[in-house]
């Protein structure tokens, strides 16, 4: 009898495919955003629709045919504030009920847990640890659990002890997201067929840095992550991952981590400590991926670029309210200062796009106005007013747009050369297509100011110049300005380290059960 037969407690034929359930809930949540993630932020997939999310599980793909994949419940939101407790409780219950139903149909061999790793729920610590512990209680101690994650996720003690095969992206921006998810599925299948549980080694590293300081486009992260393939090629190693962690939450689990999985305990422990040591040694070399500066410095650089015949467009990141990192999306600090600059709104001003502020109330007024007519409307700061208040926008209604899947209705107001983008709901304008769909061709703009940190690929490709503006907001790049109170101390860069911390691996032997299941 194979190990898989033993797991099921019944005899099966070798040709029977393993049964793997797919569940997940993911969001990156800033503790400093006043936005609260609600039902609208989470598009839900259930049943067979879940499989359609994954290109590597399309009909005819080898992985699709290698197992019986059971779609249960998966929902992923763009980053934002903390999740409302009632929303999390509901989704958690639906995940657990779906898993219970799958177990009733026959024993599971594995669970594929699709998460982010930096979800925060109102009134709760370690949301992913809570979720995976509940999953384990339903499916029992035997099925292997794999969890593909964002490298900006956080690893807690509870999470590490419960997930058999955690892994994360190796690129920031996350151009390898689907490659990582496929790798996770493949490793899960491999270990199920082996019939054993992997060993895993974890080293928490007392470093907490913003994503814009740790992009793999530049050093030292580029070389640091480039070490991983050599580690995973060692005999006895399945996977190696480095989590930079999520800096805009305030929980004890917020720190960097290294996890290595495999079959040889001494090899994976040594590899985890080696990568942790490498991370620690370059901690002071991390710097912003783009040229940093104030907002005014970024705008001045764009105008100078234009004056000397530089190509279009010049990009300025409004990094403090980046929805892609957990910003609320309606902070008006940058908009107010752009509109105050006569060199942007006066005669002969450059063509500027500024994205975006969401305001459903303002949209009602704008959608009741004819395109081409003058408008005078207060915009923004209805959700997050701690940094700045609503801004009065006086201009001409340039265009109206309906039914954007994320933003709902969209209005563009022209104020001199500035084109102000106002949306009904939160939306991250992180790609060239986001502007082009509004008739705002990026290549025709002299300046694009958008709520983003490091530039996502399509914007990165067209940028003829760039300033990472260190603006205030819920995802402020100046972490000391935020006031973390609950992270473990000491922590770099908040504290000095007279001596190097002990970067020793905690090792869980292969075949061991999660603590709560082994009593």
What topology does this entry show?
Blueprint: H1 3-8, E1 19-26, E2 44-46, H2 62-66, E3 68-76, H3 85-104, E4 110-113, H4 127-139, E5 144-149, H5 157-162, E6 165-168, H6 177-194, E7 199-205, H7 221-226, H8 228-232, E8 237-243, E9 256-262, H9 265-281, E10 292-293, H10 295-307, E11 314-318, H11 333-339, H12 342-345, E12 352-358, H13 360-367, E13 374-379, E14 391-404, E15 408-415, E16 418-423, H14 432-436, E17 447-450, H15 457-462, E18 465-469, E19 506-508, H16 515-518
Parallel strand pairs: 1-3, 1-4, 4-5, 5-6, 10-18, 11-17, 11-18, 12-16, 12-17
Antiparallel strand pairs: 2-3, 7-9, 7-19, 8-9, 13-14, 14-15, 15-16
Verbal overview:
The protein has two domains: 3-287 and 503-513, no CATH class; 292-476, no CATH class. Helix content is 28%, strand content 22%. It contains 16 helices and 19 strands. It is globular, with a radius of gyration of 24 Å. The chain starts with a helix and ends with a helix.
Portion in helices: 25-40%
Instruction: Enumerate the strands of the largest sheet in spatial order, edge to edge or round the barrel.
Output: 10-18-11-17-12-16-15-14-13
User: Strand pairing plus helix content: what structural class?
Assistant: alpha/beta
Given the structure, what is the number of helices? 16
Strand count? 19
- Quaternary state of the chains: single chain
- The radius of gyration computed from the alpha-carbon positions, rounded to a whole number of angstroms, is 24 Å
Mean residue pLDDT: 94
Tally of separate domains? 2
Poorly predicted runs: 1-15, 512-519
Overall outline: globular
In percent terms, what proportion of residues is strand? Answer: 15-25%
């Amino acid at each position: 009898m194979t190990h898989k037969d033993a797991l099921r407690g019944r005899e099966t034929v070798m040709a029977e495919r393993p049964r793997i359930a797919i569940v997940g809930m993911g969001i990156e949540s800033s503790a400093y955003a006043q936005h609260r993630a609600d039902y609208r932020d989470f598009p839900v997939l259930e049943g067979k629709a879940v499989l359609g999310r994954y290109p590597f599980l399309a009909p005819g793909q080898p992985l699709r045919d290698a197992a019986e994949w059971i779609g249960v419940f998966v929902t992923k939101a763009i980053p934002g504030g903390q999740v409302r407790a009632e929303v999390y409780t509901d989704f958690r219950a639906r995940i657990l009920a779906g898993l219970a139903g799958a177990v009733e149909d026959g024993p599971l061999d594995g669970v594929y847990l699709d998460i982010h790793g930096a979800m925060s729920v109102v009134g709760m610590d370690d949301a992913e640890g809570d979720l995976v512990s509940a999953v384990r209680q339903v499916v029992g101690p035997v099925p292997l659990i794999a969890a593909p994650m964002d490298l900006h996720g956080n690893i807690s003690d509870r999470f590490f002890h419960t997930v058999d095969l955690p892994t994360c992206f190796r690129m920031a921006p996350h151009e390898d997201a689907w490659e990582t998810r496929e790798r996770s599925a493949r490793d899960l299948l491999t270990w199920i067929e082996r019939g054993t549980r992997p060993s895993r080694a974890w080293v928490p590293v007392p470093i907490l840095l913003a994503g814009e300081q740790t992009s793999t486009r530049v050093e030292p992260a580029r070389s640091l992550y480039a070490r991983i393939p050599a580690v995973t090629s060692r005999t006895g190693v399945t996977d190696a991952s480095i989590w930079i962690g999520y800096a805009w939450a305030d929980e004890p689990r917020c720190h960097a981590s290294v996890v290595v999985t495999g079959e040889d305990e001494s090899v994976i422990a040594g590899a985890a400590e080696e990568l942790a040591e490498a991370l620690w040694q370059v901690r002071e070399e991390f710097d912003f991926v783009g040229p940093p500066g104030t907002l005014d410095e970024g705008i001045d650089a764009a105008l100078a670029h234009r004056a000397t015949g530089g190509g279009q467009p010049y990009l300025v990141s409004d990094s403090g309210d980046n929805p892609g990192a957990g910003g609320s999306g309606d902070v008006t600090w940058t908009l107010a200062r752009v509109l105050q600059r006569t060199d942007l709104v006066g005669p002969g001003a450059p063509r500027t796009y500024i994205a975006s502020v969401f305001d459903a109330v303002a949209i009602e007024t704008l959608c009741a106005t004819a395109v081409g007519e003058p408008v005078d409307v207060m915009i923004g700061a209805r959700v997050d007013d701690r940094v700045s208040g609503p801004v009065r926008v006086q201009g001409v209604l340039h265009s109206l747009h309906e039914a954007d899947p994320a933003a709902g209705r969209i209005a563009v107001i022209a104020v001199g050369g500035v084109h102000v983008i106002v949306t009904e709901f939160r939306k991250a304008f992180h790609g060239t297509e986001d502007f082009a769909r509004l008739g705002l061709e990026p290549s025709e703009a002299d300046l694009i100011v958008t709520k983003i940190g490091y530039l996502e690929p399509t914007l990165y490709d067209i940028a003829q110049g760039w300033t990472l503006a260190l603006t205030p907001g819920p995802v402020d790049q100046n972490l000391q300005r935020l006031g973390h109170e609950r992270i473990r101390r000491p922590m770099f860069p908040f504290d000095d380290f007279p001596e190097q911390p002990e970067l020793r691996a905690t090792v869980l032997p292969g075949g061991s059960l999660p603590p709560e299941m082994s009593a």
